[in-house]
Model the fold of this input.
Amino acid sequence: MSLSGREAGRNMRRRLRGLPTIPRGKAAPRRSVAKRRWIAAGLVVLAAVAGVLALRKSDPLLPTEIRGSPAWARVYYGDPDRSDFRARKIIEIEFLGRTMLVHRKVQRHFLRLESLFEARAPDYAAAVAAGELDDWSYFNRSVRGEEYKSNHSFGIAIDVNALTNVLGTVGDMPEAIVTQWELEGGAWGGSFSRPDPMHFETHLTPKEIKQRYRPDGSPKDWYLEELSS
Ligand SMILES: [Zn+2]
Done:
């Protein structure tokens, strides 16, 4: 199409839309500056909305959603500063020949840990039972050198062989136990930023523990299947 033909077509379209025609050889008026500013402003707003949505998606978890945090533990295991907490929540379990005090709702998970010691590191398990009394459990206190509550306060943590697994050291905990414990929703202090290799805590909720383990701590069939697949 020639230039004049294109201009004719342009004017026909303009007439149809009720706009004034443009003399030959002149360019069509560009969108007004105001209009372009509106479009730019619209794009900025769109980008801002998209940005906010993206940020909301990557929002950090709430403290109560972070497994193992004091806020999370309080939601699922109660307030350790309540005067009746110990009487109502804490029970004794036998763990590698030791008496451990734990929250009654984590009993199954720590019995599972005991069986991991016995099955995967029997010599180590026997040594714990025969060794020094350096294994600790429930104790309402803050984390050493910190303001916040230790998970020992909730009865959801135990310390094993403290003398050979001192805070800040590598320790001697058998890897086969640690790996499986972490796979099953437990946390091990040796993986913390300040290594605490004696320390084991559960990061499961009471409901999850009951769903996965029998009262003696053995995994239920469906969970065992899931673990071996
Ligand atoms: Zn500990």
The radius of gyration is 33 Å. The pocket of zinc ion is lined by residues 152, 157, 159, 196, 199 (CB under 6 Å). The CA atoms of residues 99 and 113 lie 14 Å apart. The mean pLDDT is 89.
